Amino acid sequence: MKPIVCDVFVQAPPDRVFRLASDFPRAAGRIPDIIKIEMLTPEPVGVGTKFKETRKMFGKEATETMEVAEFDPPRSYKLHANSCGTIYEFRMTFTPEGNGTRLAASFTATPVSFWARIMSPMMYMMSGFMKKCLLGDMNAIRTAAEQTAH
Description:
This protein has one domain: START domain (Alpha-D-Glucose-1,6-Bisphosphate, Chain A, domain 4, 2-Layer Sandwich). Helix content is 29%, strand content 44%. The chain has helices at 14-21, 114-125, 127-149; strands spanning 4-10, 34-39, 50-57, 60-72, 76-83, 86-97, 100-111.
């Protein structure tokens, strides 16, 4: 699957945007599609942190176990999940731009099992929906960062 990439501009400094975006224990209160987060490792958040994220997708609840694979405050982080024979990677980057931050996200799904490879054309068909989800999450982070900026 070709990576899904999108970005938004946030009127807040990168450290604030990063802090809010990587505050996984409190993401359910900030990002509307996330219903709950169950931390599987203690804070502080960093490489190796694991959590279960339950979000609403296609009108149903879906839970995935996520692991922080990279953590470079306030520049970037990468989450990793392995589910149903597919490896999912989600990266966020926080680049200073003028008096704010360019928040960029990329999402990839790599099928590794036979059945996941057979089903991979479905992932292509869902790419528009996935981009909409990414932008929804990013806009929620932007709103939170800009509200705390004032």
